Amino acid sequence: MPHHVVDIWWSDLRVMDRGLLPFLDPVEAARAAGLEGAADLGRFVVGAVLLRVAVGRTTGRDPWSVAVDRTCDDCGRPHGRPAVEGVHVSVAHAGPLVLVATAAGPVGVDVESARRGPDVAEWVRQEAAFKAHGSRDGDGLHVQPLVTPLPGHAAALALTRPGEVVVHDPDESSAALAAARGQAPRSAR
To answer: Which of 86, 97, 124, 137 stands 20 to 30 A from 160 (CA)?
Structure first.
């Protein structure tokens, strides 16, 4: 893990193309096949692939070897909060935006459209806190707003300890995705 506390990776639906589908694991591919809307599919696929790329960048591992467990804590089905061995992760998306965080300790992120209402800033704070430690109150967490790359959205980050945050903008995320695609096993390309 780098010396800083968390990496934030912003992306958006502009990077979505069906060429990313082979980079999903079988469980993710089945989930993607069940999504009806193009935007829902795009957010899920970009989030899943960017998660692997972000973990690869954070840990030095091959992103295509990163196993993501999405087992739901409540029902055991594969639609829960993503978990990766050796690093804490969080994924959120709203509208065209996709947000991925990697951290040394528990982390939560959330992003929402400002059209959600006047309480959107508080909502994303509570959701980020819930993703970080299972409670919306934020007690014991450092919760801070994030600047979004697209106006009209609010985002928040929740960490167990404050520290340096490195933000990767959509252009950097796009370049990282392209580089990772070029290094993928031939069978995935």
So the answer is: 97
